[in-house]
């Protein structure tokens, strides 16, 4: 059965990837481009759940809706910038983010997408996808966020920005989170 589900995001690049990731499923996806408040926290699930609760409040209860929050965590910094990567990116740019790690040999990072989905009864379900990689000097087009400085371990030396969207989706944090979400929805 086809399910109508709303994805609340103001990020067009995200939306494009999510549309691709859900294209084979029985979901009739629509987008509400609201810029929701984001809780200041290092707990990624808490952030996603609060964002989802806010989306339900704005759109009204009873409509299945989901949000996702994406973080970039540096192992050397015990998880930071994490969800704050958005503001680092806006204020400093990619080059300085890479330079933050100049004095540290440990460049390990994780890209993490946390989806929070409110079903028609208002129950919230959370799904997470993680991709391990490292931070490198920018390579590839700067079309989407920090894609040029994240090199996943499984990519044979390419940054996300150097990969096609199709290839990125196979190994990405977002791809993994949405694979779980898809499986959940198809079982419902
Ligand atoms: O409306 P929402 O969905 O919250 O969209 P947003 O742009 O605010 O997104 P986040 O709060 O999840 O912040 C994540 C930051 O990381 C960036 N980002 C998210 N996913 C990414 C990906 O797969 N590759 C590179 N950058 C990404 C994004 O542009 C933001 O700067
Ligand atoms: Mg946001």
Automatic annotation (TrEMBL):
Gene3D superfamilies: 3.90.950.10. GO terms for molecular function: dATP diphosphatase activity; dCTP diphosphatase activity; dGTP diphosphatase activity; dITP diphosphatase activity; dTTP diphosphatase activity; dUTP diphosphatase activity; GTP diphosphatase activity; ITP diphosphatase activity. Its main location: cytoplasm. Transmembrane segments: none annotated. It is found in: Cytoplasm; Nucleus. Its cofactor is Mg(2+); Mn(2+). Mg(2+) binds at residues 38, 69. Keywords: Cytoplasm, Hydrolase, Magnesium, Manganese, Metal-binding, Nucleotide metabolism, Nucleotide-binding, Nucleus. Binds 1 divalent metal cation per subunit; can use either Mg(2+) or Mn(2+). Pfam families: Ham1p_like (PF01725). Pyrophosphatase that hydrolyzes non-canonical purine nucleotides such as inosine triphosphate (ITP), deoxyinosine triphosphate (dITP) or xanthosine 5'-triphosphate (XTP) to their respective monophosphate derivatives. The enzyme does not distinguish between the deoxy- and ribose forms. Probably excludes non-canonical purines from RNA and DNA precursor pools, thus preventing their incorporation into RNA and DNA and avoiding chromosomal lesions. Homodimer. Belongs to the HAM1 NTPase family. This is Inosine triphosphate pyrophosphatase. It comes from Huiozyma naganishii (strain ATCC MYA-139 / BCRC 22969 / CBS 8797 / KCTC 17520 / NBRC 10181 / NCYC 3082 / Yp74L-3) (Yeast). The gene is KNAG0G00240.
């Amino acid at each position: 059965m086809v399910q109508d589900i709303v994805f609340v995001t103001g990020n067009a690049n995200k939306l494009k990837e999510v549309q691709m990731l859900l294209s084979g499923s029985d979901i009739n996806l629509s987008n509400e481009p609201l810029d929701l408040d984001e809780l200041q926290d290092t707990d990624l699930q808490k952030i996603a759940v609060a964002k989802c609760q806010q989306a339900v409040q704005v759109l009204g209860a009873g409509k299945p809706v989901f949000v996702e929050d994406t973080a970039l965590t540096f192992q050397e910094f015990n998880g930071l910038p994490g969800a704050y990567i958005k503001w680092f990116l806006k204020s400093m740019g990619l080059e300085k983010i890479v330079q933050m790690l100049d004095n540290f040999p440990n460049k390990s990072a994780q890209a993490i997408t946390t989806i929070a989905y409110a079903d028609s009864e208002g129950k919230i379900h959370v799904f997470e996808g993680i991709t391990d990689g490292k931070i490198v000097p920018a390579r590839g087009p700067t079309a989407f966020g920090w894609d040029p400085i994240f090199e996943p371990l499984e990519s044979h030396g390419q940054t996300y920005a150097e990969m096609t969207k199709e290839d990125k989706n196979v190994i990405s944090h977002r791809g993994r989170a949405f694979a779980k979400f898809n499986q959940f929805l198809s079982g419902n």
